[in-house]
Amino acid sequence: MTLPMFPVTMVGSWPRPQKLLAAQKSKYRGSLSDADFNRAADEAVLEALRFQVEAGLDVVTDGEQRRDNFFAFVAEKLAGVKLMKLSEMLDIVEDRAGFERILQTLDVPAYSITNATCVGRVERVKPLAADDLRFLKRHTGKPVKITLPGPYLLTRAMYVPSASAATYPTKEDLGVDVVRVLRAELEELVREGADFIQFDEPVLTELVFTQGQTRTFMCASLAARKDPREELEFAVSLFNQVVGGIHGVRIGLHICRGNWSTNESTLLRGSYHPLAAYLDRMKVDQLVLEYATERAGDVIPIAGKELGLGAANPRTETIESVQEVRQSLQRALQVFPAEKLWLNPDCGFATFSNRPVNSAQISFQKLKVLVAAAQTLRG
Ligand SMILES: [Zn+2]
Q: 351 C-alpha to center of ligand 1: Å?
């Protein structure tokens, strides 16, 4: 893959068109066949692709158009996993009042978000993303990035003791099968020619910023241990088991502080520093980190790895200026060598399908600014 200096890409998701959102609703109601849904999704993927190509991105994604959100979609692909609305989750979580409080504080509409819950032996009955990759590659010659939920996020989010413990006594037991599933997916994606595979692990920041005191709605059913070090060790171990020994593809790890609301005050705050020692040990080529938001603090040095520098806030209507992005890049250049730097927004533009954090038009303008800034600094 030949890339220019400061390659520009997306983190993953793109706002879905109304037609696709309607198709998604009908599919979940059972009034639309998979084939009909896929026709609507194909169209949306091609539209998301056109936006990225026109903006001048160097590496493209499918905008996660087929997914309900960045991790719950696995319920459709895996045996032993059931998609539960958060309203259903309320009936089975250990601490219902606490859970409801989290949803309110975090500004999460319970009716709009779903969780993939482990209810039996987890097995990969359909590819998680290999079909998406094949479709995308048929329609572009550009290098392609595929996003997948990370093994720690999947294990934590899917493990709901009252539903999962009959099959897996502990979340560590579930972790073994999550690793197996993701490893099989990774191998297929590499065989099919993916250029860049990014794992999303947004929960890692929650571990260090909240010390297990609060829980995000994504992992609301299962409290982290009070000592985040144990959880972080678990996350590193799962991750390295999934990617260890894989060659011929760029492996990325995306960590942010949540992207469910445009109300920044409900999102977590704190620097990546407490995670540095763990990130250092993760077998990853590129860390895709948010830095456009001031909540993320200074750029942390991680030797030997690339940085996908978040340089546009996906949640604001204001378009960053080329000058602002150049300044961010220059700040990162004090910590990372130029050949290790990529540019991207802080996170996806529509992590949750029915709660995009921006419109396609504004998202498109933001991507164009990233490309323009990279161009002015190339050569
Ligand atoms: Zn993110």
A: 8
